[in-house]
Design goal:
By secondary structure, this protein is α/β, with parallel strands linked by helices. The chain is about 50% helix and about 20% strand.
């Protein structure tokens, strides 16, 4: 079997995957526990979606009042549509539901904030609607670590997959022979060496 066929076969179970970046806004990020680690992980995630050509859907909570997605993250986002919402669950937005339907997304990879509110409610609604849900443990954040820990356990017991970003990336690649393995592995290696302080 040719490498292209093996790669295609290994990714069959990943058809329909879409990355959802929830409310990563400057005003909300400022109070998040371990904010710098979260931003590092989200930057790696955003860069990886470009390399792997995975759909990325971005939501913003009442951006007219809370402002838009963090400038640090936005610098790596091209013309991605931002979906404004007022409900805490992303499924309260008709525009969001329409977009994931148009993109044929049936497996949501959730990232962003806040774990104990918008991520939790969005994941529960996604499960109720019949979607597969994976939460990237290092790509979500909350103000209170205790609340986040309780919620992550609850979501896992409810049927969500909870894994770190690197597990998702290498699971998506499936093999070191994947044509995108080298650029992804370089991003992962650079993750620690490029560590930055994002405090304002």
């Amino acid at each position: 079997m040719k490498i292209e066929e093996r790669v295609k076969d290994s990714n069959k179970h990943l058809n329909g995957v879409g990355i959802i970046l929830v409310d990563a806004q400057e005003s909300l990020l400022s109070g998040i526990n371990k904010k710098d680690d979260l931003i590092d992980a989200l930057l790696l995630l955003i860069q990886s979606t470009k390399i792997l050509d995975v759909p990325l859907v971005i939501t913003e909570q009442v951006p007219d009042k809370l402002g838009g997605t963090s400038a640090i993250l936005s610098a790596h986002l091209s013309d991605n549509n931002r979906i404004a919402k007022s409900t805490f669950s992303i499924f309260g937005s008709d525009e969001f539901v329409s977009q994931i339907n148009e993109l044929n997304i049936n497996h949501l990879i959730l990232s962003g904030i806040e774990t104990s509110i918008c991520i939790y409610l969005s994941a529960i609604d996604a499960l109720k609607a019949g979607y597969d849900v994976t939460i990237l443990s290092d790509c979500v954040g909350a103000r209170r670590a205790e609340d986040e820990s309780v919620v992550i356990k609850k979501l896992e017991s409810s049927g969500c997959h909870i894994i770190p970003l690197e597990s998702f990336l290498y699971g998506y690649l499936g093999t070191a022979e994947h044509p995108k393995f080298r650029p992804i592995s370089k991003l992962v290696r650079d993750r620690v060496s490029n560590r930055q302080d994002y405090s304002q």
